């Protein structure tokens, strides 16, 4: 089976999980929710710390959700989240989306949130997601688009953050502008264009609490996470440059008129 592996750019440092654990089915998978039915079997690929996975499990109380992750170290937190909510219809497994260890036609819904931007071969990933989806079932994917992220006001150093992130993510084998490409990847993976509904959606951070949270986690990621280590080891940035970018994030967060929008592409594909 053709397969390319990419390095997961963010890793699972606390500053990264601060962002992932904020996510809910409502704020990250709204485009899918009206298609869910209580008895459905759902696969959540690249589930990370599992807050969206747990929400999906609560929405299919007579069904079952499987959270799949390539990084085993984050699954203890995912299991804890599900257990803390008293969910008994969710399980977590280690695996790689490029080669799913499930028979054809296993799931009613196969979902991936912010995953395909990080994989080495997103078309192969979608082929696999399609293969394990029952005929008539749904493949649902949502990814950000880093070049389309926009903010106000312009603070010195923020554009450097965007340029550096794009370079590091691509050097790791990913595609940070995945959002705009999802529908094209779905076609290449074998979905007929009329079987794919493509939409776009945003997260927007504006209030003092939102700005403080978003700028703080990016400032910390920039100097402390796997991303920081990779950026330095691969020669894309010096420690000094990373510190400057982290300071730019904090300066933006302190701006009274600060506003930040994250654009996402979304696809709902009928198998
Ligand atoms: C940005 S996180 C998203 C986590 C979760 N879906 C969410 O939105 O909160 C991407 C996750 O995909 C996982 N991942 C990356 N490559 C993968 C692969 N080839 N197969 C399965 N999971 C993968 C990473 O380990 C990481 O936990």
Automatic annotation (TrEMBL):
One of its GO terms (biological process) is methylation. It is an enzyme of class 2 (transferase). Keywords: Methyltransferase, Transferase. The keyword Transferase applies. Residues 38-167 form the Methyltransferase domain. GO terms for molecular function: methyltransferase activity. Its EC number is 2.1.1.-. It comes from the Bacteria. Gene3D superfamilies: Vaccinia Virus protein VP39. The keyword Methyltransferase applies. It holds the Pfam family Methyltransf_31. This is Class I SAM-dependent methyltransferase. It comes from Streptomyces sirii. The lineage of its organism: Bacteria, Bacillati, Actinomycetota, Actinomycetes, Kitasatosporales.
